[in-house]
Amino acid sequence: ITAFLASNKRNSYNAQLRAKQMSRRRRQRKMDELSGKINPKMLEQLRKKTKFTKDELDALCRIYRKLISNCQYAAKTLATGSSSAAIVKPHAAVEGIDRIVFRELLHSTFDIVTEEILMERIFCCWDRAHEGLPLRLEGWLTGLSIFLRGSLAERANFCFRVYDLNSDGFITKDEMFTLLRNCLIKQPQDEDPDEGVKDLVEIVLKKFDLDKDGKVSIEDFMGTIDIEPLLLQAFGQCLPSETATVSFFSTLQI
């Protein structure tokens, strides 16, 4: 009985010790992530998962640190300047790149000038594992890899998810209308610009709807892009131009 009790006590102590060690490692990973640091093992995993070199990953982590700092500063400023501070989240709770900083990055760094609805969809689709949440380090890097160096198939898949506004697996006529209506510039002489958009939707649908079921599936979209790559961003800009991509990499301090 004494041996049994001693064994149980040792097992309980070992379990507590392992739990503390795991908790300590999780806290350290979280701190490293928020500071933009990558341990050698994670660095190698990300190098295999993305299309960046180790030096590029280090440089992108430095950018991540700056963006996190911007998020925290903006949240702190909002909290101190708001008259309704009770409903404002404290800046310490901000973890990752938020919508405001992300949109500013897309606009100022990658020359993406698009409607609010597309900006929101790009943000939500960036990290599939944490859709719509502030971007953490790994999600930031893996999403950036597709955004900047993805294959045609990877970028087409990303664009499709952006255009699929309700995430049901199809781009419907209503979604096409919303996207194209926001993209087109209304002319003062147009009496009913929506009619022109409806006509354009029918034209685009005929191009993309390969199985003729009245909506565009991922298979339809990929098949069309494979034939005509220039239609990749037919429903609005959600990827950077080649010039913006080259310019971005030239600014990395490697």
From TrEMBL:
InterPro entries: EF-hand-dom_pair, EF_Hand_1_Ca_BS, EF_hand_dom, Recoverin. Keywords: Calcium, Metal-binding, Repeat. Residues 151-186, 196-231 form the EF-hand domain. It comes from the Eukaryota. Pfam families: EF-hand_7 (PF13499). GO terms for molecular function: calcium ion binding. PROSITE patterns: EF_HAND_1, EF_HAND_2. This is EF-hand calcium-binding domain-containing protein 1. It comes from Ceratitis capitata (Mediterranean fruit fly). The gene is EFCB1.
